[in-house]
Amino acid sequence: QVQLVESGGGLVQPGGSLTLSCTASGTMFTIYAMGWWRQAPGKYRELVAEVNTGRTNYGDSVKGRVTISRDDAKKTVTLQMNSVKPEDTAVYYCNAGVIEATSGGTTDYWGKGTLVTVST
Description:
Elements: E1 2-8, E2 10-12, E3 18-26, E4 30-39, E5 46-52, E6 55-58, E7 66-71, E8 76-81, E9 90-99, E10 106-110, E11 114-118
Parallel strand pairs: 2-11
Antiparallel strand pairs: 1-3, 3-8, 4-5, 4-9, 5-6, 7-8, 9-10, 9-11
């Protein structure tokens, strides 16, 4: 079982920046993907950014405004978003794709989510 603990979020002013961090713990063989998704009220969950098998993918709505970094030794992923807008308001979820140590199968894990509100 893998646990994801998120930190960061809260109230951010338009045009400001935010940093979100997520750390994974538990028993696993390896993490092949780690990143951030978000879900705004009444909308589907969408990709913000992820590092997946060495490739970095960004959601269309945030390209050019976000940077994602991953530290495999610390099992941590950090998202920095600049020039935030009110439409960035959402619950942000950490996600990890894991190869299980026991079965060798893959499992998707999700954090509990952290609310980001962009407002004056």
